[in-house]
Amino acid sequence: MSSVDRNSTLPLPPHYDANRVGEVWRVPYQERALQAQEWARRYEIQPAIQDKYRMALLGVDVQNTFCIPGFELYVAGRSGKGAVEDSQRLCEFIYRNLHVITHIVMTMDTHQVIHIFHPIFLINEEGKHPDALTSISYQDIIAGRWRFNEQLSGCLDIEAEYGQQHLLHYVRALKKRGKYDLTIWPYHAMLGGIGHALVSTVEEAIFFHSIVRNTQADFEMKGRNPLTEHYSAINPEVVEGPGGEKIAEKSDKFIKLIKEYDAVLIAGQAKSHCVSWTIEDILEDIRKIDSSLARKVYLLEDCTSPVVIPGVVDYSKQAEAKFREFAEAGMHIVRTTEPIQNWPGIELD
User: How many CB atoms lie within 10 A of CB 125?
Assistant: First the structure.
């Protein structure tokens, strides 16, 4: 038996297969559990509760919907292999650093059929729904080009009139805040569906970590409220209805994570959207408390990719600009290929 120093890395376990990262498959939990227990014994890896220097990994929406080619909103990046390669690096990072990652938190974009940004929510005079990726502006609703689908009022437990009022209020709120127009997205991250699940290889790595470290991973569902968007893991886009009634609320879970842990690492999809907006909201909360807390945050830049649709849109520059802002605020931009002990501010015991 040989113990591993916290300033060194572990080997990749034999079951890990980098060639399967872009595939969907069933994790053999019992087999992996036994292997993880043996791995912990072989390298004398202590339970997470004994960590003096506590490190948390926050993975944003590392789900099939965004990370597997052929799924609804696959984040290809400029290379076309963006999210697949990101997931591979993330898995290998978890395995090599099982002994220093104390806690893992995964956000999961979570939707059902009827949602304000899904086609079925809106209808026009011809009885047709908008196509995916249609942009719905405040003026579109005012002009009557699109309206609330009254057939949904019963299952949403609202009056048809309220549904139309809310839709108008919603696009007005986005416009007032200088946000993007309401985007109609393909049906994605459907609760109970295969697209909602974590990438199989990543799920396996998280499960393996839980057994090795005797700790429970945390899964944060976001986006279940059908009346608002929820890109950031922290802030829904609109939290009040047309009458000022609360329809959603901000989460304080992640600022607590920053306060409680010595280092918080962030990865996931997409760099230009949910990842950047989550970090932006975290930074806003940090500034309200203590700006120096930003130095606890490490952005794994080789484990996240921007949305790129060749010939249509490329958010790469916007994503890079956001990450520069985060670095200027004190956060660290790092790569998983660099040893953790070489990252600025890391003090592994």
Answer: 9
**Torsion of the alpha carbons at 16, 17, 21 and 25, rounded to the nearest 10:** -80
Per-residue 3-state assignment (H helix, E strand, C coil) for 160-200? HHHHHHHHHHHHHHHHHCCCCCEECCCCCCECCCCCCCECH
Q: State which H helix or E strand residue 309 sits in.
A: strand 308-309
| Maximum CA extent, the chain | 73
Provide the CA 8 distance to its chain's centre, in angstroms.
Answer: 28
pLDDT tens per residue across span 185-213? 999 999 999 999 999 999 999 999 999 99
Domain ranges within the chain, ordered by starting residue: 18-110+190-342, 119-183
Strand partners, 219: 106
Q: Which CATH class is domain 18-110+190-342?
A: alpha beta
pTM for the full model?
0.96
Query: How far apart, in Å, are the Cα atoms of 318 and each of 61, 76, 93, 278, 337?
Result: 20, 16, 26, 15, 24
Each residue's pLDDT tens digit, 295-308: 999 999 999 999 99
**Rg of the chain over all Cα atoms, to the nearest angstrom:** 21
CA atoms within 13 A on the CB side of 101: 31
Residue whose structure tokens are 């000022």: 244
CA distances from 329 to 209, 262, 296 (A): 31, 17, 11
Backbone angles phi, psi at 31, to 5 degrees: -60, -45
